[in-house]
From TrEMBL:
Keywords carried by this UniProt record: Acyltransferase, Membrane, Transferase, Transmembrane, Transmembrane helix
Lineage: Bacteria, Pseudomonadati, Pseudomonadota, Alphaproteobacteria, Hyphomicrobiales
Chain ranges of the Phospholipid/glycerol acyltransferase domain: 72-187
UniProt cross-references to InterPro entries, sorted A to Z: Plipid/glycerol_acylTrfase
Name the UniProt record assigns to this protein: 1-acyl-sn-glycerol-3-phosphate acyltransferase
UniProt-listed SMART domains: PlsC
Transmembrane segments: 12-30
CDD domains: LPLAT_AGPAT-like
Domain of life, source organism: Bacteria
GO MF terms held by the record: acyltransferase activity
Pathway: Lipid metabolism
Amino acid sequence: MLYFRSLAFNLVFYLSLVVQMIFWTPYYFLSPRHRAWFVPKFWSRTCMWLYDKIAGTKSEITGVENLPEGSFILAPKHQSFWDAIAFFPYLDDALYILKRELTWIPFFGWYIMKMRMIPVDRGSRSKALKAVVAATRAEMDRNPRQLIIYPEGTRRAPGDEPAYKYGIVEIYSQLGVPVVPVAHVAGLYWPRRKFLRYPGTIKARFLPPIPPGLAKDEFMKRLIGETEAACDQLLVEASRAPNPPPMPPTAAKRLAELAAAGKAKA
């Protein structure tokens, strides 16, 4: 049953993307940008509904009261495709940094550029970082935007050792806006590079914002400490659910470490 529900969800998920992209094209491109945001947000909510009804996986996102007004940086853990689509419906005007090659894809690329996302050329990291900061600052000066950036860069397995990149420190330092960490363990239910979709409830939490103006080392310490502590708590909760998802080796190892340290409280 797990296999067939996963197969059904994957097929319907991508079919929904194609059908909605075609169906909404006239409205999307003829509407002002702020109204056109309805389309990707509606698609995201549709995906979460399909995920629940077909795969049996609910999405529970809390901490919305921690999202500031105006411009800020949203810094989620990156474990799954789920965290790429679940959060922007909660934002007024989300802003993504992405590879320029994605803008060349018919329809998908046109949708991206309508929302004034920031494409980045491959090459020197220092040059790319300067270009990202300049483009993001220009967007935030134009109107409030919420930059979504994954501090670890690539997807990592739940419970894996944190590997935060220094790029977010520079962006935080130069933009001077709050950073909202986001904790979750979605990779337990929608694993990276895996076909299966496990039932249960994905819990994610917007944490209290880290204010601008902190020293770089202090900011990085807070970002890692607060995010990882909340992820550990969610990992323990997931492992104790009535029907817990399979624990990958990284998650099992982290749970053992927490138990040994006495942090996996009942």
